[in-house]
Amino acid sequence: MARAGATAAAADLSYPIGRVATMTLDHDLDGHATTRAILTRREDAETCADPSAVMSLFADSAQTAGAFTSYRSTFVEGAPGAPAHFHTHAWEMFFVLGGSLQVLLGEEVTVLHQGDFLAVPPGTPHAFRAAPGSGADVLCVFTPGMDRFDYLRLLGQVTRGEESPSRLAETAERFDNHYVDSPIWRATLEAPE
C-alpha cells in the first residue's frame, strides 16, 4: 500500500540530461523502503577499464538502498574474465547482450549466447570469460546489492600494477568475493581453442 502522494512523486521522473539521477528513499505505510527510479545515461556511467574489458558502472548498493548492484562488462575476444569464486550473500546474474560468455557453474562449463540469462545462487562456485573466438557484452546484477564498484576499481588497479594482487584476498569478506580452485575451470582455460 502506497502512502498518500506517492503517485504524484512517482510521476516526477524528469532528470537533467547528462547526469546520473539520484534517488530518494522513503517508506510506505507498511514500513517498506521505496525509491525513485535510477537513471544512468551511458555517457555518464563511470567506467573501469583494463586491456581486456570495460565495465560501465550503473547503480551500486548505496544508490539502491542495498537492493541490487548493476554494471555492464564488455570483454574483448579472448578476455580472461573472472577466476573461480563464489559469493556467500548475493545472487549474481548475467544477461548476455552480445557475443558469447563461457561460464563455470559448479562443476559444469557452458556457453551463454546473446539473449541468454543465468542467475547464480550464493555459495555456488562460478567463473566466466569471453567464449573462445568471441567477445562478450554482459549486463551483471547482484542482489542484494554490495559495494561491487569499489571491487571493480580495485581490480582495475591490480590489473594496471597500481595495487598488489594480495589486496584482492585481503578484501574478500568486504566484497563477498571468495576465490576457489576449480580443476574443471583450469582445464577449460588450458584447453586449445
UniProtKB/TrEMBL annotation:
Domain Cupin type-2: 74-142
Classification via Pfam families: Cupin_2 (PF07883)
PANTHER family: PUTATIVE (AFU_ORTHOLOGUE AFUA_8G07350)-RELATED
Protein's UniProt name: Cupin domain-containing protein
